[in-house]
């Protein structure tokens, strides 16, 4: 219960309450964007400073390897399950959303670990960056495969002769050529283009660039940036989570319209993903703090990066599915209950 009294979580709850009672409390878009930039920059710097102090060790390589493995396994398993209740395009979009990560959930988790005096590796910010793209790439590849299959079926169907009646009553044979096949179809994106868009995206570029700056400047940079990336961090996070609470409240009506199967996936899927991360971290003896963050990353769902790409790359999918589930249900559950729960589980197993 004490973990729920963290100011950041309470400000998030305040934002949800304000949204539910239809308060006129609102965060200007420019300030919301500034807070996002600040948090990513501060997180990258802190990660770079920590990595400069620890160096690139076998433990670092192991954690990054597990992050990439989870980023591949989670969306593939999610797609296989979701395909039973959704169309192929919707299943790919939702699987990408839950296979990618939430930067805000990760930032909140790092702040929670610091409040509990649990150390974690600065390289975990790089793990978060690495986990964002694989799910998007897999989703686009699955969507392209589905389109090719649909086009092949459409061409085969249109090529089959059909019987038509002339005005005189005589039967004639005809067919529809490939040029007459129509339907909603998205662009066929190459893996290279997806990778370019992912790693030159402003969010990724700022995070990785700030981490590199922190790594290069080390202790001197840390001392110089302490008032910015250290002292202000908690307050800025509280402001951002207040805004996220307002956004969550706006998405709750759409959540109530989803099927029980999808609601169950939005709750049980992240727990399953976190359990998978826990098992892998336990097998290879990842440090406790890194294990918690791996669980958080595996359990989180993207509500910014993936929707921005998927809306363009997979227009056949329904945005109300993946946006409402990730932001309206999974995000608040992770912030309020998931992070403290994952931390307690790791503390028990690792005997921290």
Automatic annotation (TrEMBL):
Keywords: Membrane, Transmembrane, Transmembrane helix. It comes from the Bacteria. Signal peptide: none annotated. The chain crosses the membrane at residues 6-25, 37-57, 63-82, 89-112, 118-142, 261-285, 291-314, 321-342. This is Sodium-dependent bicarbonate transport family permease. It comes from Acidovorax kalamii.
């Amino acid at each position: 219960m004490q973990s729920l009294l963290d100011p950041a979580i309470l400000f998030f709850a305040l934002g949800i309450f304000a949204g539910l009672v239809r308060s006129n409390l609102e965060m200007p878009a420019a300030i919301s964007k500034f807070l996002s930039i600040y948090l990513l920059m501060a997180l990258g710097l802190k990660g770079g400073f920590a990595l400069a102090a620890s160096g690139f060790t076998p433990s670092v390589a192991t954690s990054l390897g597990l992050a990439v493995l989870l980023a591949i396994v989670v969306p593939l398993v999610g797609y296989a399950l979701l395909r039973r209740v959704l169309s192929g395009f919707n299943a790919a979009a939702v699987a990408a959303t839950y296979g990618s990560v939430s930067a805000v959930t990760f930032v909140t988790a790092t702040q929670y670990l610091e409040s509990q005096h649990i150390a974690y590796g600065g390289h975990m910010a790089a793990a978060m960056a690495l986990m964002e793209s694989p799910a998007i790439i897999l989703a686009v590849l699955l969507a392209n495969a589905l389109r090719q299959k649909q086009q092949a079926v459409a061409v085969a169907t249109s090529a089959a002769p059909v019987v038509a009646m002339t005005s005189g009553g005589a039967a004639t044979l005809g067919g529809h050529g490939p040029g007459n096949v129509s339907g909603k179809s998205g662009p066929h994106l190459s893996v290279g283009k997806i990778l370019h868009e992912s790693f030159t995206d402003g969010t990724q570029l700022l995070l990785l660039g700030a981490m590199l700056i922190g790594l290069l400047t080390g202790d001197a940079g840390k001392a110089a940036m302490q008032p910015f990336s250290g002292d202000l961090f908690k307050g800025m996070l509280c402001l951002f989570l207040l805004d996220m609470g307002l956004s969550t409240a706006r998405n709750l009506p759409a959540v109530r319209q989803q099927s029980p199967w999808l609601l169950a996936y939005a709750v049980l899927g992240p727990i399953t993903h976190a359990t998978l991360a826990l098992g892998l971290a336990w097998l290879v003896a990842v440090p406790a703090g890194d294990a918690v963050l791996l669980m958080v990353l595996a359990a989180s769902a993207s509500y910014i990066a993936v929707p921005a790409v998927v809306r363009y790359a997979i227009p056949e999918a329904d945005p109300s599915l993946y946006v409402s589930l990730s932001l309206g249900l999974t995000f608040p559950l992770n912030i309020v209950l998931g992070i403290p729960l994952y931390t307690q589980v790791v503390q028990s197993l690792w005997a921290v």
